[in-house]
Each structure stands twice: as structure tokens, then as C-alpha cells.
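Notes from hallway chat w/ T.B., transcribed later so I don't forget. T.B. wanted the structure written out for a chain they're using in a teaching module, and asked if we could keep both sequence and C-alpha cells in one place. Agreed to drop them here.
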Amino acid sequence: MNIDDSVMARLKQEAARRGCTMSELVESALRLLLTARGTPRPLPSLPAFKSGGALVEIADREAIYEAMEGR
């Protein structure tokens, strides 16, 4: 396993701060990662609203310009 030098330095600092080994910290992080993936959360419902309908026909370029520029 290859770990980027900057990540390794942060890992050493965090392990020292917590008073544990780097191996314990990596194992703990991996356990969290692997168990969190098991149960996906349901997505919230999208908001609904009434737009009042289209102002212009999307295929009519001139109508779009008129609506945008107030021509």
C-alpha cells in the first residue's frame, strides 16, 4: 500500500494527538468507511411548485429573445 507523503504526515500527527498507533487509526477509519456504505439513506423528496406554464415555445428563438430582452 502506498500512501501520499502529505497524508502520511497528517496520519502521524493525528495518531500522536489521539495517543494511538497509525495502524489503529487507519483500521478505525477503514471500518467506518466499509460499514457506512451498507445502508444508503433515502433521498428527500424534490420540492413541487406551480410555474404557471411556459412563457414561450422553446423552439421559437425569436420568442425567447423577446421574453428575455422585453422586445
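Follow-up for T.B.: The chain has a mean pLDDT of 88. Might be a good example for the class.
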